[in-house]
Amino acid sequence: MDYQLTFKKIFSSQYLFTGIRITAAAIIPALILYQYDMLGLLSAIPLGALVVGSTDSPGPFAHRRNTILASICLNFLVVVIAISLHHNPVLVTIFIVLFGLFFSLIGIYGKRANSVGLVALLVFIFNIDSRSSFGSPWLNGLMFTAGGMCYFLMSLLLHRLRPYRYIQIQLGESLRSIAEYVETLAALFKVKRDDEYLYNKLSLKQITIQQEQDSMREMLLNTREMVIDSTAKGRILMMMFLDSADLFEHLISLHQDYKDIHKAFDNTEVLQEIETSLHAFSQELNSIGYAIQFNEQSKAHTDINAQLKKLSNVFALQRKKALNKNTLPLFIKLRQIRFTVQDVGERIKRLHYFSGYETIATRYYKDYPGAELKVKHTELSPSLLIGNISLKSSQFRHALRVTIAMLIGYFVSLFFPLGHGYWILLTIATILKPAYSISRTRNKQRLLGTITGVIISFAFIYFINNNTLAFLLLLCTMVIAYSLLKLNYYISCTCITIYVIISFHFLNQSDFNVVVTDRLIDTAIGCVIAFIASFMIFPLWEHEQTKDLIKNFVDANKKYFNVAAGLLRQPEVLKTNYTPVRKEAFVALANLSDNFQRILSEKRRDTKLSFYHQFVASGYILTAHIAALSSLITRFGKDIKADDFDTLINNVNEKFKRTVCILNGEPVKTVISNRNAPITNKVQKLLQQRQQEIDEGLYDVQSDVRISLRNLKSITDEFEMIDSIVADEVKIATRIMQ
Fold it and tell me: How confident is residue 76, by pLDDT bands cut at 50, 70 and 90?
């Protein structure tokens, strides 16, 4: 095990940075208050900092600032209302309905709005218990506001000191994820391999990379006027992101079926050298990712030029040994793989260069298209909220589910003598998510995490009972809890339970056993209620969304294909419309794949699950071939007549239309075959002429036939492969709709 690499991975993570920031914002005021023996009375101040910090997610500072301020204002209002009502169960019930519906429904405005709503709901739950607040409602509201402002000021200070920190952390993690993707791609070229396992692993990693690049895209777009355009470092960071996006597209084009290549070249050095090159590139991307996160100049561990030259020599040697009229098509395909590997190597060299942040590097800035940075924004329109008040809306069904479950939990806490009944509501609010599969997983993790945390904290205090060590444990568990909240909910819940129990131990040691018992009982009750609610109250099954996601995917890939094919006529499209359309296709594929993964975790399985799997699998191959087509047209398209490919383009579009009609339940037209496409016949004729040249011993002569065949066959093969995949999707769509 590489402990140095593990250490770097932990301490360069954005999640650890988040955990430390939230912990510091809560602990610093808590220590000051504890020093003056006021923590028990003014605990709302560190709690206010803690909850506001939970809404702060990576992104443009303007968005983060607005989210924090909105949360502070909303929390103040909620605290005042909650404490004013906690002696009247009827009014509390009414506001559980109002707040439960509203704060859950505002999630339609995006992740930030959803986090603000959830935190406001948690603050309401904290304060409906009479023992968790002291003094007047306004005083408690001001204390929560003071805590929130502490976090806001600390966040503002960190941004002023290191304005690029979030961007560097996110970019570094994205490059390291791409490095893992490259490492998996390298395994596709091994003699002994598990193709199905590797394809699934590539699919899951692609979802992660797409999410990270979306986050980067949002940060760069919304900080561009404030930071990027005014400094060399900012411009270089933007260029590195755009290079990484293009690099990822080149890599996706390698996500293909190589059975014919393996059959012909498994016992040769060519595939071994491709694997070696990709493995080396993975290490280089890892190195660059860590260097960016630590604000260092990356150091190359591999001579990329020498590696690419070696690959080229091995390919030339194998070509000299085995090229004949039968293996010619395979060598054309193998050469395209080599070209892609070379493109990847060149981009990695440029990323190494950019990591030095030299001012002279900004001369490349004008060559980068700004279109890649376009993102969609959700408008905060009241009509959107009103339009979602319907059982057809998954978010409204989720809001109803949360509200009903919270009402049940509140009534249970009223009619049974539970010490900390609000923990039941906290458990329900944090566990329930719009999709059943996520709620089910979080339910199990919450319960197991609570039990584990209780055992660890009880054992620690019973056997050690040292306040200094207890405080250190509290600090560590807080950092871990908020670092892993989005990565590992089980460990996060374990750590939250530990630091909550230790906090009660510091505040009131005599009630420690009662706190432990209440924590277990209340969490168990909340988990049971949440489980029943997620399963029985307007459940949202993932397969209910699959058809719409398939439609979005087909539409996005149709646009992606047409823009890629359009590069034959308008190469300048590459700098305007191409990159946004590519992004939409990748996002649609990631959403569909993510949906399928969640279907697998549901208790209730759809009878058409195998067809969904086939569609997702074909989707990855289709996207890879469109990416490969784009790369080939960019490389060879200048010397090709665009009109020659019109028939192939029309055939693919006809099949796309057929798929859409089937999914919409509309009449379907007959598909046109591309067997008699003029370009197909032309390529076949060129292939025969080139085979004749090879028979005559003209292996290395750069004849017109060889050059034309090299350019045309690769592109034509990609068109025909895309046509074949879309035809398969027509069949799969038919089975899905039956």
Answer: very high
pLDDT tens digits for range 126-170? 888 755 556 688 888 898 899 999 999 988 888 888 777 888 888
The better pLDDT of the pair 365, 187 is held by 187
How far is residue 445's CA from residue 484's CA, in Å, rounded to a whole number? 13
Max Cα-Cα span within the chain? 98
Using DSSP, state whether 565 is helix, strand or coil. helix
Give, as one character, the DSSP assignment of residue 703: -
Tokens 């893992």 belong to residue:
180
The tens digit of pLDDT for each residue in 391-418 reads 877 788 888 888 999 999 888 888 876 6
The number of residues in the chain equals 738
What pLDDT, on a 0 to 100 scale, did the predictor assign at position 78?
A: 92
Vertex 737: Cα angle to 732 and 738 (nearest 5): 100
What φ, ψ does residue 410 adopt, rounded to 5°?
Answer: -65, -45
Cα 423 to chain centroid distance, Å, stands at 31
Please state, in angstroms and rounded to a whole number, the distance separating the CA atoms of residues 79 and 21: 24
Q: What are phi and psi of 147, to 5 degrees?
A: -65, -45
Q: Which residues contact 100 (CB under 8 A, 6 or more apart)?
A: 121, 399, 402, 403, 406, 407
- Comparing 260-269, 422-431, 439-448, 639-648, the range with the smallest average pLDDT is 639-648
Q: Judge whether 179 and 248 are in contact, CB under 8 Å.
A: no
Mean pLDDT of the 275-298 span: 89
pLDDT band at 183 (very low <50, low <70, confident <90, very high): very high
Alpha helices in 302-327 (DSSP H): 304-322
The answer for residues whose C-beta is within 8 angstroms of residue 356's C-beta and 6 or more apart is 297
pLDDT in tens, 603-627: 555 667 778 888 888 888 888 888 8
CA distance linking residue 727 with residue 463, whole number of Å: 68
* Alpha-carbon distances, residue 18 vs 53, 66, 113 (angstroms): 9, 18, 19
Closest residue by Cα to residue 249 from 178, 351, 308: 178
User: What is the DSSP secondary-structure string of 87-115?
Assistant: T-HHHHHHHHHHHHHHHHHGGGG-HHHHH
Half-sphere exposure of 413 (CA within 13 A, CB side): 29
Per-residue pLDDT, averaged over 707-727, amounts to 80
The two three-digit tokens of residue 402, written as one number: 């949360």
Q: Which helix (H) or strand (E) holds 196?
A: helix 195-223
**CA end-to-end span of the chain:** 51
Cα 90 to Cα 414: distance, rounded to the nearest angstrom: 11
Confidence of residue 363 (pLDDT cuts 50, 70, 90): low
3-class secondary-structure state, position 121: helix
Asked if residue 484 lies in contact with residue 492, where contact means CB atoms within 8 angstroms, the answer is yes
Half-sphere exposure at residue 429, Cβ-oriented, CA atoms within 13 angstroms: 27
Letter string b/e over residues 666-679, b meaning 16 or more CB atoms within 10 A of that residue's CB? eeeeeeeebeebeb
Which residues are within 8 A (CB) of 631 and not within 5 positions of it... i.e. 6 or more apart?
249, 250, 253, 339, 340, 343
As a whole number, the mean pLDDT across the chain is 80
- Lowest mean per-residue pLDDT among 100-104, 287-291, 323-327: 323-327
Torsion of CA 141, 147, 148, 149, to 10 degrees: 110
